[in-house]
Input
Amino acid sequence: MKTEAETSGAAPAAWLAAAPRQLAEMNARAGWSLDAGELAAVQTHFRALKREPTRAEVETLAQTWSEHCKHKTFTSPILYREGKSTKRIKSLLKETIVEATAKLKKPWCLSVFEDNAGIVAFDKKWALAYKVETHNHPCAVEPYGGAETGVGGVVRDVLGAGLGAKPVLNTDVFCFAPPDYDGPLPSGTLHPKRTLTSVVAGVRDYGNRMGIPTAAGGVWFDAEYRHNPLVFVGTVGLLPRSAVKKSVKPGDLIVAAGGRTGRDGLHGATFSSAALDDSASVSAVQIGHAINEKKLLDALLRARDRGLYRGVTDCGAGGFSSAVGEMAALCGARGGAAVDLEKALFKTTEIAPWEAWVSESQERMVFAVPKEKLSAFAEVFSAEGVEHCVLGEFNDSGRLKVAWTGTVLVDLDLEFLHHGVPRRERQAVWETPKPAAKRASRAARRGEAGAALRWCLAHLNVCSREWIIRQYDHEVQAGTVVKPLQGLHHDGPGDATVIWPQAVVGEEGSYRGFGVGHGMNPSYGKLDPYAMAFSCVDEALSNLVCSGADVSQASLLDNFCWGDPEDPKELGRLVRAAIGCRDAALAFGAPFISGKDSLNNTYADAKGAKHSIPGTLLISATAPVPDVRQAVTMDFKTANNSVYMVGVTADELGGSLWEAFAGETGGRVPEVDGKRAKAALHALSAAIRSGLVLSAHDIREGGLVTAAAEMAFSGEVGVSIDLERVPRAKDAADPVTILFSESQSRFLLEVTPEKEKAFLKAMRGVTLARVGQTIANPILRVVDLDSRTLLEERLGELKAAWQRTLPAALGWPGLNGHNGHNGSSR
Output
């Protein structure tokens, strides 16, 4: 075993006398990602103590103060300028996401913004925990391992929520450059095809081996992700409501269980907090082992049900330093912990003490175990084949102390560790983009409607995802009621997933489940991040509506992935998106329960130029499904039924697929009328749960005609749509706008004749119209405003266009017969 002194444990250099330039050089060499103010704060603190910091102490502070762990941009003051007005925001998180939840005060929110996952009520006995994480930087460097450990990490977040939840669903949402991208790639950047195939394999292997269904998600393609792919992974779990709260008491033993500690994942937190360049090292990427985590999961749940521990958290970013440090803060009035680090279990003797302290080796969790229960705890974990060790004790000293065979590695004041990071004010500015309007007469392009439809269906952001979905086991645990692939041949594009967790709840006669949906559209964000945020919330909730979930009890999660927060314009876009999230949550009455931000998604090339991703927001939503037997899917079922459209179509094509097809710019980004949208979503949600709707699909990328085509070819039932009947604003005056507008809060529904009267009664006060009917002939027919046929397309040809794109882009055209759409977000 390496000693602390052998790896510069006393300090990388003399801190107390170092000049700012010397501190910056040490920071760069060590990879701490601390800024000048934070380096000065550490120096000032130890000058007051009249001693040099140890390497382990600086590492502990760097991990704890990292953007990844401390979310400094979201919690520090921001001077925000928009137009002629300037506002000082004390904490972006508290004044947007948290404020919305606080104002709504929903009784089903049991634990929000304080644990490893958000926890809401499922029923009177059970609670639901949900967390979505990102693993972007690791997946850019080593995509298979990064994806595997991303899944493993978010599963442990749910295991560490409350006293531990049983995972019942995994989700995955990706943003990549097109897999057939043929442009330049800088040194050290993997080709998007390799990144895509390796990430999918990593998510597949970890989730499948753990026996958790991966059944909801989506993929977004844009060449601007070529340097920095985005990988969002989520887990939903169930736990008893009695296990929602955790505690730590003085004298509780610090017990680590699961995998052994090695040198993998060093500086993972600080690595994820900085920009990528061609020197990024795979040593910052952890190594996963799904079977070990499955054993850990089984042992944890057995111990939870026997009441053998008081608190638990996972070893994620920062390893033991963050897990023990965070739990220590919960102990007594002041918090505290004393650790004998040499008692940990190691993969190798070639590890320095400071490395052992901050290592992010996987499949590890830390427990607060009462001394009298250690024997029973050990028995349960040994029976499951899970190694464990006692690292020390929690106390109320106000200090975090770590020793290695009697030598002090860390002696930090907890107040300074958790609250000493300087809150530097940042500058943010929002300037409304004014792209030059470029638009020909749409009425003159009506003859291109058929070609535009096929182009939309074949677009990478609409086309089939079955190649991805079929690699995941979405049936394990036998609770997936509404699946990611739907329709007659189980290959159509579903909106949301519905899970019936009967295997966990076990209540005879109960058919209560939950739905999960997603919303994301970075194209809108390039024009207006506020409109994008509102749209993402609208889409996630609309997904839930289409599955039969009760959106009056919906909960939201936010995941922001952004570029350089030191760029005032980038930060201004982030502020505007966060404000949009707050306003949307308040408008829909849906609280945020958890979230995560991943900033600095930039790549610095050899010349020093920075390349940033588009500002990207993923909204995930969940809501109860009171009776999963009433859930519906998106495919048309039979001929001779009425087709209704809910919502108003306007000339809102900014950022749309039509603009991309036609080469237009300057269109208006779709906006959401919150009051009208909420009324429509709640009414339709109730109508579907009352059994009045046979199929439902929300209208998104590609507009009305694309949604109609998906419903028709998924069910192999034809449809005829009359544009004259479509509810529309005055500016939607031509067929192209009506067909391809991406106005929000709109749905296509199939209603049987015998239920039509009850349906209309249930939807009273909501804008809707009967716009067509299902037909036996396997075609999509659109009747123009002048009552003449505008287009008539065979369903088989439309489906073929939709199916062939992704296999062709991957260079595997023989896969055309196995393609679909990955669940709840295009």
